[in-house]
Amino acid sequence: MAIASVNPATGETIRTFEALDDAAIDAALTRSVSAFHVNRSRSFRERASRMRRAAEILEERQKELGRLMTTEMGKPVKAAIAEAVKCATNCRYYAEHAESFLADEPVKTDAKETFIRYEPMGTILAVMPWNFPFWQVFRFAAPALMAGNVAVLKHASNVPQCALAIEEIFRDAGFTGYEFQTLLIGSDQVERVIADERIKAVTLTGSEPAGASVASIAAKHIKKAVLELGGSDPFIVMPSANLSEAVSTAVKARIVNNGQSCIAAKRFIVHESIADDFEKRFVAAMEALKVGDPLDESNDVGPLATPQIADDIEKQVRDSVAAGAALLTGGKRNGNYYSPTVLTRIPSSAPAAHEETFGPVASIFRVATINDAITIANDSPFGLGASVWTNDRAEMDRFIDGIETGQVFINAMVASDPRVPFGGTKHSGFGRELGVYGIREFVNVKTVWIAKTPQATATE
Fold it and tell me: Which CATH architecture group holds 2-229+428-448?
């Protein structure tokens, strides 16, 4: 099986690779076991020194790495460079905090001493997507390696050069004993890797079907899994909001990564008293975006990553309009490029009402009350993130309590940050990445109980 790197902006095949065969996979997993014994024996200080060097390398190579991301999956090059820098921030965060996050925790009991110890598990398989080809990997790998684990990466098949570049970064940073390895394999080989006894757990970021498949395989072999899946995030705007700021952020939140982000705002729920104004400003701002070559820093939106993704978004818009939705702007395709698009008056039967739209397509809904806003926000199989715009404290509390989601951002767009946990509810997955919770996903939480020494009796 050939794994190809194809430039989505031009359709040019840049490079092809042969997938690893079973013998090569077996050799990689054998190396990972030896690497685990080395990495777990290192002090946090030793691991942190290497992780800080990885951060430095990311910053030193940011332009080179940014261009690589853009040519493999099409994101605007400025965003790709920023992604490399964000990965460096994550590496430094865990280099600084891993030791305190995993320090022994004393517990008061009737024993002489009781404490909780966090110990690494071993080799963790990461199945990662193409849309943030560096960030998705580093937000797993930095805490995993700092905890003493080792990692093998099965990256998306359209970003093989990114996968190999990440392995090179960790190796150049001092993780030279196969602590991080890239497996260039197809999706049909993933089950065989998960089943291998040398793999202790698996983490996946990707589609709902991929998550269901990986989780079921992991469960069959009694292995832990963490899943970060899709999202159809609501972006709610109430009358007390700063409308100019809300509109400006709404556009950024919808077209981030050419609209191909699980936490991109997709459903814009606007109070009817300000809906006309919001809609007018939002449409104008979407129409002002420049679509074109993602290597040209003056452009805002590049191509979708693959022809299939372009096919899917084109069909969702076409079917939504056929169901009765009104097309306010966009809806045009040119190769892998899709114009920024806004739909409104969307019936519940339309794909844009419930499905995840993985491209620059925004759906606007009008509501009369806060209860209506919460109802529509929750009317989705997903529950990843939500952005709420209001300056009314009581409304903030209602939204925080009422929206079924893994994260709620008030007067800001949803974003991942190393300092706070990231993950979703419902069909958006389970488990958490980032923050203290992320590093504790792949450790053995061990209870240690040391009994009091019995007192000697007089007859003894």
Answer: 3-Layer(aba) Sandwich (3.40)
